Amino acid sequence: MTASSTSLRNVLLGNRFRRGLLKTLYIYGALFVYAVLFLLPFYWMLNTSLKEPLRVFQIPPDWYPNPVVFRNYLDAWINERTDIAAEIPVYNYAKNTVIITVNGVIATTFSSALIAYAFARMDFPGKQAMFLGVISTLMIPFTVLMVPQFILWKNLNWLDTFLPLMVPYWFGSAWNVFLLRQFFMTIPLEYDESARIDGATHWTIFSRLIVPLSKPALGAIGVLAFVYFWNDFLGPLIILSKPQNFTLTMYLANFSVAFVRTTPWHLYMAASLTIISPCLILFFFSQRAFIQGITITDFKR
Amino acid sequence: MAVAASGRTMRKAKIQETITAYLFVAPWIIGFLVFTGGPIIFSFVLSFFRWKVINTPRFIGFDHFVAMFTTDELFLHSVGVTFKFVLYSVVLGNLISLSLALLLNQRIRGIGIWRTIFYLPAVVSGVAGSVLWAWMYSGELGIFNNLLLAAGLEPQAWLWDEQLVLGSLVAKSLWNVGVPMVIYMAALQGLPQDLYEAADLDNAGEWTKFLSVTLPLISPVIFFNVVMGIISQIQTFAEPYVMTKGGPANATLFLGLHLYENAFHFLKMGYASAMAWIMFLLIFLLTVIQFGLARRWVYYEGQSS
Description:
The complex is a heterodimer. Chain A is mainly α.
């Protein structure tokens, strides 16, 4: 009686254990397959970027570079052997992208925080209507604004300058205002009130209290903005026309897939990998900020 | 006396507060008028004019909107291409990102590493990703065809086959599902455990638990991801611009690309404005329909029915 019940329990436990093991195996198996698929493009980029020029066009292609040619990276950046926009070295495009990105990150984070502060912590006539305005602009696609903004830049004589890619971001962006407002509202109002009793102005409360307390949210907005500006393509494409003003994404797009056999793919992939690396590195070191930035919205509200 | 004085100072303080508040929001008001609201109104007006930048605008009424559905054969075609792409990339993208999030929500080791791997493509720009995928799709030199050959299968003309090319672009878009995945992960982590414990007491299987507990609880998040996915995918531009230039035979002429060409190659600013408005209307309608349908399948906690 007792013996059979223990054996039954053993069988049941054994089954459950085996089922658990099988489940774990399935999970890791599925994750592994997905991981291979997601990493394959990165591997192919790295592989191509390190190949000897002639081996790039070998059929079938090598699965690993042999010999490994690190020189490709130097060539891609010093622009020794590429025939794409020949006179302009790649670092010039990089300089343009850096200017636009640095300005964009600072501008959008600072101005959006300022505006969000007013919506979250202050009372003024027309506040509800204005916030509704912010929400409604969330949905407007860039494609709708593209043509009239282009005409505006043309009339201001701003075409083919960085101004259209830099100035508008000092006026807040709807998403960031919305996200930061949500975050600022979670900070207890008592903090402001006690600061007010001590005679602090709104600017002091904003700069000394809210901003330091919101570092994670501001960091999240900042890193996402970095990736956005670094990767922006359609904006610069419409506005910039002189090759020396081009950005990195414009440089990358400036070739035709039709000439697969004559494109120096090893140099392209070396350039691509270096161009995406700031975003990759930023992500590696500030994953938490990225994830916070994406999940900052409260879905239930 | 004293009361009146303090009333006056209070009113003064209130005015002061209002002025300060307006100073804080001033950037948004100016930005809205100059860079968003103004241009939107202007673009609406412009859509009723024929204007090729150099000539003076000429009023033509609804001609552009009529042309879109009659003489411009490519407009409806591009809407169709875009819709088909949005449908597949949003549905498949959400299936993959949700399944990844479910896998990562199990008790596994090295969650940070896995999450990094799956999110990584999301920080690669549309252009860099497109160049890379174009290279991987290329005929004899591409990795996909060589994998097919290694498996003893026929190589494909990924980007040059009218039937296949849109699917190839959808596949590329599935590589970038990091953002919805992270949103799903956060939602799954926030689920209340007591419901699962109750389901365990009923001896519910994994699948039953997923269908009757997880799915209803995360339905608002699925809704959010689907709406955001549609809004972003409908604007797809870099991929067809870099990988196919809209070809072959306009099989990947996305709405965004058609609009861009009309505005900046043919300089038909009025016509492009009209198209942009139709595009906005489409996004708006789709979102409204989504919200209408949502009432049938999205479950909100603390809400009856």
